[in-house]
Amino acid sequence: STQSTGDTDAPTEVMIVNSGDTAWVLASTALVMLMTPGLAFFYGGLVGRQNAINTLMLCLITMGIITIEWVLFGYSLAFAPGSPGIGDFRWGGLYDVGVTPSVYAPTIPHLAFAMFQMMFAIITPALICGSVVGR
């Protein structure tokens, strides 16, 4: 929720972190993160023995690579204010992304929102890996 500051000259609002919303987003983030290894095991079961470990590693390595990419520049390009098509680098390295809420999610910490979005950035290439499994 938001609260008015009470100052009649400044119509600004203070964003307050809601513990229920934050808990839900963090639980959802963990569940989406668990989907990637689950997807790796699913794809591993679809291929022959010679490709099973390769398939597992392909899906799991995407977790590390996309996490680094997301933290360094992915989140900033996707969500920072900039031109209409792409953001700028003001949040590169998650600079100035902290525990205060953002305009994107006014009731949860900005960092929790960034991590939730990162899980979908991770699982997307893992899903694409399924199209090349065993080929």
Structural notes for this entry:
This protein is mainly α. It has three helices and two strands, in the order E-E-H-H-H. A two-stranded antiparallel sheet has the order 1-2. The chain is elongated. It starts with a strand and ends in a 6-residue tail after the last helix. 20% of the residues are buried.
Key features of this structure:
2 strands; 3 helices; mainly alpha; two-stranded antiparallel ribbon; 135 residues
Task: Tell me the number of strands.
Answer: 2
Instruction: Please report the distance between the alpha carbons of the first and last residues.
Output: 51 Å
> Into which percent range does the helicity of residues fall?
55-70%
What is the 3D form?
A: elongated
Biggest sheet, spatial arrangement of strands: 1-2
Global structural class: mainly alpha
Mean pLDDT: 87
Q: What is the radius of gyration computed over CA atoms, rounded to a whole number of angstroms?
A: 19 Å
| Largest β-sheet summary | 2 strands, antiparallel
Listing every helix as H and every strand as E from the N terminus to the C terminus, the arrangement reads EEHHH
**Number of helical regions:** 3
- Strand portion: under 5%
Unreliable stretches: 4-8
